[in-house]
């Protein structure tokens, strides 16, 4: 875990060291969510603002969706290559899936039972 | 048309790299040779994987778009109820989807997690499926 000791400045401003900013892939202007965790820790999570239409405009039909699938997969593969994620081993992908399943199980157990 | 349910690991591997053995699965889906099926549980799992620390570095807009496009490109079915075939509880969601879809194949790299075929559905790796397609045996 990367961490640093930083001083809180006027009006609550603080400087996140460059090494941590780079590790998180955030830069000046990035939107961050700040949350208090367990009453004594601050959790800072980078956020993105998204043009709603870009994400929510549904393809009109299956044919269009298949065309778009190719496009979005190509973009993700390109980005993954640039970020060195295309070399993720199957073992690591399996760990990611295992974690996703644990998280979903936790989420589902929090839902009220009807 | 060959009806398939793609296990989450195989789907993520196919999305992330054009080089691995799973990548052709997406090409076959795009070409209309394979018809993927989903349930809400399977789709939620596909999406949740991209919350993994390393994968969070990917642009969230693209991941959200991928989810939406997959939802339309695939055929969504409703699970008919809980199955208990695999010892890995979450893999039973894949079996349930396959049963609802009357899928010909579950495509997975983790064949040990899917101990047996179920009704109409065989368990197969992407590589094996490609071999069958090349041999015209599907």
Looking at this protein, list some descriptive labels.
heterodimer, A: 114 residues, alpha+beta, Pemi-like Protein 1, Chain: D, two-stranded antiparallel ribbon, 4 helices, B: 138 residues, alpha/beta
Give an account of the 3D structure:
The complex is a heterodimer of chains A (114) and B (138). Chain A is α+β, with helices and mostly antiparallel strands. Chain A folds into two domains: 10-47, Pemi-like Protein 1, Chain: D (Ribbon), CATH 2.10.260; 52-110, no CATH class. In chain A, 47% of the residues lie in helices and 12% in strands. Chain A contains four helices and two strands; from the N terminus they run H-E-E-H-H-H. The longest helix of chain A has 21 residues, at 62-82. The relative contact order of chain A is 0.05. The model of chain A has no long low-confidence stretch (mean pLDDT 86). The mean pLDDT of chain B is 92. Chain B has a single domain (2-135), classed as 5'-nuclease (Rossmann fold), CATH 3.40.50.1010. Chain B is built from six helices and five strands. The radius of gyration of chain B is 14 Å and the shape is globular. The longest helix of chain B has 14 residues, at 60-73. Chain B is α/β, with parallel strands linked by helices. Chain B has helices at residues 8-16, 23-30, 40-49, 60-73, 91-101, 126-135; strands spanning 2-6, 34-38, 75-76, 105-107, 122-124. The A-B interface holds A 25, 48, 50-51, 54-56, 58-59, 61-62, 64-70, 72-73, 75-77, 79-81, 83, 85-88, 90, 92-97, 99-101, 103-105 and B 8-9, 12-20, 26, 29-30, 32, 44-45, 48-49, 51-52, 54-55, 57-66, 68-73, 90, 109-110.
């Amino acid at each position: 875990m990367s961490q640093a000791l930083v001083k809180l400045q006027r009006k609550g401003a603080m400087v996140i060291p460059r090494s941590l900013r780079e590790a998180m892939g955030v830069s000046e202007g990035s939107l961050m969510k700040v949350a208090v965790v367990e009453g004594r820790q601050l959790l800072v999570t980078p956020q993105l603002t998204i043009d709603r239409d870009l994400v929510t405009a549904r393809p009109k039909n299956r044919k269009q969706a298949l065309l778009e699938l190719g496009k979005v997969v190509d973009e993700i593969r390109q980005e993954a290559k640039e970020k060195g994620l295309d070399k993720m081993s199957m073992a690591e992908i399996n760990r990611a899936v295992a974690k996703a399943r644990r998280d979903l199980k936790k989420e589902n157990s929090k839902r009220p039972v009807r | 048309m060959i009806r398939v349910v793609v296990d989450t690991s195989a789907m993520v591997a196919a999305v992330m790299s054009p080089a691995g053995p799973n990548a052709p699965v997406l090409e076959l889906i795009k070409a209309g040779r394979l018809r993927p099926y989903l349930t809400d549980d399977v789709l939620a799992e596909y999406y949740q994987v991209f919350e993994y620390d390393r994968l969070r570095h990917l642009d969230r807009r693209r991941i959200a778009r991928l989810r939406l496009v997959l939802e339309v490109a695939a055929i969504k079915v409703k699970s008919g109820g809980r199955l208990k075939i695999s010892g890995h509880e979450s893999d039973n969601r894949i079996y349930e989807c396959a049963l609802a879809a009357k899928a010909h194949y579950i495509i997975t790299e983790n064949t040990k997690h899917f101990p047996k075929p179920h009704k109409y559905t065989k368990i197969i790796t992407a590589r094996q499926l490609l071999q069958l397609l090349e041999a015209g045996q599907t």
